[in-house]
């Protein structure tokens, strides 16, 4: 066999190498066979966590709260509002009273306090008033009980006097009490009345049940007023005795105690005014003398001392203004 020429052998080798390269390239570019498994749907995106909504507050009373429990809770809140008003926190008291009313719509204390918060004090209590000098143990609650007949009306009395914090009441402070000042003690009978022959006394009548009850009532009332006097609240005791003497004109004991407390009050006011003047507390001295004149309009000493204090006050003001 004749050997193949060398150049042909080389060409054949090149062709074989080229065919092999083309086969490799074809295999590399062939896409992979499709999988027999069905295509999977893309997993849904996980939503971002949302903040847990806060449940709306359930208005009291709660569904499982019994009527008796709601009533008790309402009264507790009303008393809490009393403390808040005593400290001048009206905004908190409004909220507390709303909750108390929701719990117990018939709560009388919550209703009274809410009315005072909303009320115009001047329109409610009137423009007529008299001055009162605060004593050592006085509170607006005590004064409201004494003069307005209800200790829980302290807040409207505070508003009447522009007192922002009812708990801050100082002895010697002069405040306004709505209404007219109690009249002074009755004028003593003329001197010649003592020498007049006594009129014959009627035969004693058997007391009726009503009269007996009246004596019991005035005796109990006198006992309570005496407690005020013993506690040092002389001015309030005097007004209370005056009121009793008017309500029970047949009670000689009420009239006797009224006159005694009046004299005691005038002495105390005179002493306090003199002490205040000596200490150059002219405003307090003037206020004390004015209280004396309200109770005893004919008191000449009180009138002169008041004018002296007013004159000194004017001189001091002029002196300071000239500096």
Describe the fold and architecture.
This protein is mostly helical and 323 residues long. The protein folds into 3 domains: 64-118; 120-181, LysM domain (Membrane-bound Lytic Murein Transglycosylase D, Chain A, Roll); 211-322, Serine Threonine Protein Phosphatase 5, Tetratricopeptide repeat. The protein has 12 helices and 2 strands. The protein has helices spanning 6-29, 67-86, 90-103, 108-118, 121-125, 140-148, 154-160, 209-230, 234-247, 252-278, 282-295, 300-322; strands at residues 129-133, 174-178. Strands 1-2 form a two-stranded antiparallel ribbon.
Main beta sheet strand tally, sense and closure: 2 strands, antiparallel
Counting helices, strands and paired strands, the structural category is mainly alpha
Distance between the termini: 150 Å
Beta-strand share of residues: under 5%
CATH class of the largest domain: Mainly Alpha
Q: Per CATH, which architecture of the largest domain? A: Alpha Horseshoe
Question: What are the key terms here?
Answer:
323 residues, mainly alpha, Membrane-bound Lytic Murein Transglycosylase D, Chain A, Serine Threonine Protein Phosphatase 5, Tetratricopeptide repeat, two-stranded antiparallel sheet, 12 helices
């Amino acid at each position: 066999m004749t050997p193949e020429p060398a150049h042909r052998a080389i060409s054949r080798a090149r062709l074989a190498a080229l065919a092999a390269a083309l086969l490799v390239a074809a295999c590399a570019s062939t896409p992979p066979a499709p999988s027999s498994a069905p295509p999977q749907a893309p997993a849904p995106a996980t939503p971002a966590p949302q903040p847990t909504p806060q449940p709306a507050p359930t208005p009291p009373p709660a569904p499982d709260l019994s009527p008796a429990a709601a009533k008790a809770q309402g009264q507790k809140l009303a008393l809490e509002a009393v403390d808040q008003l005593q400290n001048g926190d009206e905004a908190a008291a409004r909220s507390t009273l709303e909750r108390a009313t929701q719990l117990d719509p018939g709560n009388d204390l919550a209703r009274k306090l809410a009315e005072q918060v909303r009320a115009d004090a001047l329109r409610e209590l009137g423009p007529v008033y008299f001055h009162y000098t605060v004593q050592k143990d006085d509170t607006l609650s005590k004064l409201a009980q004494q003069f307005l007949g209800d200790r829980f009306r302290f807040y409207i009395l505070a508003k009447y006097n522009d007192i922002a914090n009812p708990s801050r009441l100082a002895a010697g402070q002069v405040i306004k009490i709505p209404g007219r000042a109690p009249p002074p003690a009755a004028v003593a009978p003329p001197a010649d009345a003592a020498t007049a022959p006594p009129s014959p006394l009627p035969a004693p009548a058997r007391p009726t049940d009503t009269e007996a009850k009246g004596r019991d009532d005035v005796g109990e009332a006198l006992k309570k007023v005496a407690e005020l006097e013993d506690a040092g609240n002389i001015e309030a005791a005097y007004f209370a005795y005056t009121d009793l003497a008017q309500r029970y004109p047949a009670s000689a004991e009420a009239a006797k105690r009224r006159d005694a407390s009046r004299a005691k009050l005038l002495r105390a006011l005179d002493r306090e005014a003199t002490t205040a003047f000596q200490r150059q507390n002219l405003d307090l001295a003037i206020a004390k003398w004015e209280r004396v004149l309200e109770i005893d309009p004919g008191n000449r000493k009180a009138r002169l001392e008041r004018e002296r204090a007013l004159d000194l006050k004017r001189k001091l003001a002029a002196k300071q203004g000239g500096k």
